[in-house]
């Protein structure tokens, strides 16, 4: 009986040792993977949070897109109408300076 118990205990210990070795190997692989990831991501630029979601963020993106399209259309119109580079540059500068005012007037809350 004692020999049988010793044999079963030895078998359990062997299985436990195999499982422990497998866990240790997996943990070592995970640590190496994490170290590689940290090494790569430390060299990359840090970006802010992801894209904002929700109704207000979508509304703001829509308003900004509309304003940019409007100003782009006006700049194309200035580009087509006037051949003078000074007028084209002036139209661009005026559109950049007027963008916040147009945004405030068009999308007042």
Automatic annotation (TrEMBL):
Protein name: Uncharacterized protein
Coiled-coil annotated residue ranges, if any: 7-38
UniProt keyword list: Coiled coil, Membrane, Transmembrane, Transmembrane helix
Superkingdom per UniProt: Bacteria
Transmembrane segments: 64-82, 88-107
């Amino acid at each position: 009986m004692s020999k049988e118990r010793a044999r079963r205990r030895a078998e359990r210990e062997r299985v436990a040792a195999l499982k422990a070795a497998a866990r240790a190997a997996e943990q070592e692989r995970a640590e190496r993977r994490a170290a590689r990831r940290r090494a790569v991501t430390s060299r990359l630029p840090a970006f802010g949070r992801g894209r904002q979601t929700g109704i207000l963020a979508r509304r703001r993106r829509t308003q900004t897109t509309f304003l940019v399209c409007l100003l782009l259309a006006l700049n194309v119109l200035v580009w087509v109408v006037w051949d003078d580079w000074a007028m084209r540059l002036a139209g661009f500068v005026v559109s950049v300076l007027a963008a916040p005012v147009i945004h405030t007037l068009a999308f007042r809350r």
